[in-house]
Design brief:
The strands form three sheets. This protein has a four-stranded parallel sheet with strand order 2-1-3-5, with helices on both faces. Strands 8-7-9-10 form a four-stranded parallel sheet, with helices on both faces. It is globular, with a radius of gyration of 20 Å. The chain folds into two domains: about 170 residues, Rossmann fold, CATH 3.40.50.11890; about 160 residues, Rossmann fold (3-Layer(aba) Sandwich), CATH 3.40.50. By secondary structure, the chain is α/β, with parallel strands linked by helices. It has 15 helices and ten strands.
Length: about 350
């Protein structure tokens, strides 16, 4: 019977799940993911940690609790650095130890330190360390890692072309492996005179429960929506260099890079920045983005979320932002940009 490897549907799941799925499947394991985030799941995770813990970690703990008894091992990497002199948030560094401490009933945690600043050889050793849990054949581990990297490149390419997240995952891991994603598929962006960029970390933007389905709601309001996933890495780095000099945080491209890119794009009418309350790195990056938006003269809405964020207030803010953008463009000589919307348009995307 194959080893059941559990991958919680939170945090780095949205960036790396297709790659991890391919790697473990190639080694003969059965990959199991937790279901989409729910109110019960978030409440369970929140009850296990101190109040000051950030929302994404509370969500992650809830997903871990949901997988107790369903898997043999949990894959929880400690991702330290992806390049020299660029640092990661502490929640990613200590995640395996945190899970062991607060979810004592959790199954075995398969953890590994990913620190590319330590050199390529250390990274290869880390990959083989994980692979030895399933096979002692180094050639098999090498082939699995190569297949995983090819899947990751294909997945990122699909996202950059504008493919919805779930579609990109389905095409990357295969229809059979992605069974159950269909009900989550995003509505495609409509052809509209109004384009809004929603930027932020994928675990904040793509988790429909956490951000109250902001992407679908904007589509329902008649806007054409873009995300940070559609920004090429080179463009994100150029924007970071222009606004901050050099990257300091590992995933700065998802915030400063993407926001800077869209703020300079004349085809984007406004930017919504989604961040979690109490996130240290994001609090620094938000200030950079706000200054850049003011300098560019482009509307920016900061959407700060936590477990207490109310759906009604969020919907009202989205409606007001879309209406403001439409009227602003109309004042610039684009009357077709005023987008009428009703309560029924909101209901269609709930």
């Amino acid at each position: 019977m194959p080893i059941r490897v559990g991958i919680p549907r939170a945090l780095l799941f949205y960036q790396y799940y297709p790659m991890w799925h391919t790697f473990f499947t190639a080694l003969g394991a059965q990959v199991i993911t937790s279901p989409p985030t729910s109110r019960v799941m978030l409440a369970a995770g929140t009850a296990r940690v101190v109040a000051e813990t950030c929302l994404p970690v509370k969500v992650y703990c809830g997903h871990v609790l949901d997988m107790v008894g369903q898997v043999d091992v949990l894959f929880i990497p400690s991702l330290r650095s992806l390049e020299p002199n660029v640092h990661n948030c502490s929640k990613f560094l200590g995640l395996p130890d945190l899970v062991r401490a607060v979810v004592k009933e959790a199954p075995e945690v398969l953890d590994v330190d990913i620190d590319l600043e330590a050199g390529r050889l250390a990274f290869y050793r880390a990959v083989y360390q994980v692979g030895r849990r399933f096979t002692w054949n180094p050639l098999r581990v090498k082939e699995a890692s190569q297949a995983a990297w090819a899947t990751h490149v294909r997945y990122l390419g699909l996202l950059q072309t504008g493919a919805p997240l779930e579609q990109a995952m389905q095409e990357s891991v295969g229809e059979q492996a992605a069974e159950g994603w269909g009900q989550e598929a995003e509505s495609g962006s409509q052809s509209s005179a109004l384009t809004i960029a929603v930027v932020g970390h994928p675990y904040n933007v793509f988790d429909r429960y956490v951000c109250h389905d902001v992407l679908r709601r904007l589509v329902g309001l008649g806007a054409n929506v873009r995300t940070a996933a559609q920004v090429p890495e080179s463009a994100a780095r150029e924007a970071i260099a222009r606004l901050a000099g050099r990257p300091y945080w590992t995933y700065e491209g998802e915030v400063v890079g993407a926001a800077g890119h869209y703020l300079a794009d004349p085809n984007v009418d406004g930017v919504i920045l989604v961040v979690a309350f109490g996130c240290g790195p994001d609090s620094v990056m938000v200030d950079v983005v706000q200054r850049a938006a003011q300098a560019a003269g482009k509307p920016l809405m900061l959407l700060t979320i936590d477990e207490h964020t109310g759906e009604a207030g969020l919907v009202t803010r989205l409606e007001a932002f879309v209406d403001m953008l439409g009227r602003r463009l109309a004042g610039l000589g684009k009357p077709e940009a005023i987008l009428p919307f009703t309560d029924s348009s909101i209901c269609r995307v709930v």
